[in-house]
TrEMBL record:
Family: Belongs to the ABC transporter superfamily.
Protein's UniProt name: ABC transporter ATP-binding protein
Transport recorded as keyword: yes
MF term (GO), any: ATP binding
Domain ABC transporter: 4-232
The keyword ATP-binding appears for this protein: yes
Domain of life: Bacteria
Keyword terms, alphabetized: Amino-acid transport, ATP-binding, Nucleotide-binding, Transport
Amino acid sequence: MTTITTRNLKSYYGDFQALFGVDVTFKSGETTAIIGANGAGKTTLMKSICGMINTTPQMIYVDDVAVGGRPAHTVIETGIAMVPEGRRLFPSLSVEENIVLGSHSHRSGPWSLERIYDLFPVLAERRHLSGTSLSGGQQQMVSIGRALMSNPTMLLCDEISLGLAPVIIEDLYTTIKTLKDEGMSIVIVEQDIQRALSVADTVYCMQEGRVSLSSSAAEVSLDAIRDAYFGM
Ligand code: ATP
């Protein structure tokens, strides 16, 4: 089981500061949604947690162990996997090769190629095709499958619905719910507020590099979200 906590997290791209003291907790077994306008810092938060942006150790904890500043491959060993915005598949590799790329972790667990194909049968049929020859929704399945191959206990999903048709998004969120029911801790970055609230236990809204709202998803009002989203 994994709980992630950030404490006064500050992140920079060179001299540009993107996060200004972010405190969030992603609880074990829960689904947490991160919402916020373009440029609010949602992706930067995900990247910081995954070790893709340098931070100090005291800013990020996994189950009370300080992991800020560690290289990304060591963060994967703590049970965190990211489904990146834009899917990031390798065009020269097949569907199967793209999925298997995610298995470079020493973690043991239930996930295998066979189990990914059980979750997404269409990928088994297309396993030998180029990853980028698939539809957008199928590419997103490959990206999720690749993340699951590291046997994570916490899955960070950055805008998995971007650019996809509503019926495909519905299918992907059914998968997210299945994973949650199996005990996976999940963080979703999502532009669609209603959809985020429909799956989340806890919701954070970000604005200009800060957390502007933190609430139970069941109890939050749309007025509070509007204020936090637009800074009213
Ligand atoms: P979006 O919904 O557009 O993905 P976001 O909430 O994920 O937005 P971030 O991508 O985290 O926002 O961006 C936060 C801030 O950091 C923005 O001002 C953005 O312009 C800046 N930023 C993001 N990536 C870089 C980068 N590689 N170099 C410099 N600045 C960056």
